[in-house]
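## Example pair
The file below holds two records. Each record gives the amino-acid sequence first, followed by its structure token line.
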Amino acid sequence: MDERPVSPALKIAAGLMFLFLLAPLLVVLPISFSGDDFMAFPPSSWSMKWYGAIFANSVMMNAFWISLALAFVVTVLSLGIGLPAAYALVRLKPPGAEALSNLFSAPLLLPTIVLGLALLLVFAPMGLIGSFQGLVAAHLIVTLPYAVRVLSTALANLPLTVEEAAGMLGARPLTVFFRVTLPMMRSGLVSTTALCFLVSFDEVVLSLFMTGPRLQTLPVAMYNHVDQQADPMAAAISVLLVVLTLAVVLVVDRTAGLTRTFVK
């Protein structure tokens, strides 16, 4: 393949774009190591005390474990529901498959605050506000469209002839699915898992509508903390969340490869 050299102007434009995207981190990172009792940039002194304050704060730690458990449950359910749905849309192709695919993607077209208000009005009479079950249902509405879309793309890009050959050799449909189809769509499964986990863990708008005083996720706890006091703890948590996201990306890269997973 003929590779044309990248022009210097394009390199400069790409560098400026990356700098623009990383600008918030370049401010938050120094603030997280501030020794001050309030947010100030640049800090007047340096300290690691706010990282220690996170682990000493029972509200933040409880919210972290709730967010972790919530993201895990939502990811498992998204895979469990999204995989059969994607298989039905791509392989079985029922009547109105395109309309069903668009219906699955519909929640992504709505502003999150509108979706949160609608869920509040629907879930409140059912007693799901401030409950773990309500949070799971709300997050599923956001993560399922991603799961169905990514898994459908992964299935559509698989060579159908391999599955047909396995069936012609006597393998049953379930055997073909578990021993041929699933291994071939490994990168799609990895990307879906990572995407659903991160979307659920970082979701704040829907969580604000669904949480209560006894149950709050980490993004909601951070929002309430910043609303009450402007210390650098929120910056330290933000840096740790960036590190968590990078860890997930590295896991994806090591297991399936970023190019094969996201550039499909």
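Second record, same layout:
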Amino acid sequence: MSYVEWIVPGVLASTAFQMAVGECTYSVLGEFKWTRGAHAMFATRVSAWDMVRGWMLYIVFRVEVAAVVFLAVVAAFGVLASPWAAVTLVVVGLLAVAVAAPVSAFSASIDHDSYFALLFRFVMIPSTLFAGVFFPVEQLPALVRPLAYASPLWHGVELCRAATLGVAPPWPVWVHGGYLLAFGVAGLWWAAFSFRKRLQD
């Protein structure tokens, strides 16, 4: 395969990852601290869980629109090697929730936006650089690889790459999908808890 065919799914997954992180930082904190729009919603019959679900639907919609445009452009250049590439839309949606839910929970639990610099510097950028987007994780030192494997982005990259290339990933598909699902479920629980706690202020 060419390097372009290899890197395209990584860029697709990392775009979804970065969009999910970016959309769930200042926007979420602002709804609680600056505009207090979340408190206005909570004053109605909308529950904290309803707010989390609605926010996740918005994030998934944003990511899916970007993914569709991305796939259309790379398909026009003949980069997609398999019709299974359409499955990447499911993968990026699952990746978006797996990332957006815990980041939303984090954003709802802090009082100052300076913490976002730490999130970007020590989570988002290293994940993008060392999760198999631009080069195989196997090229990393053995001691560092477990950190890459722990990243939801790596699992998303592997699933997207398998789909666009039409090959089986090194790990079973259910392991990657199950990891993203577990990450998303835990993040949703944390987000609902953080939203509910913050709305009591």
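Notes on the second record: The CA atoms of residues 74 and 80 lie 7 Å apart. The chain is about 75% helix and 0% strand.
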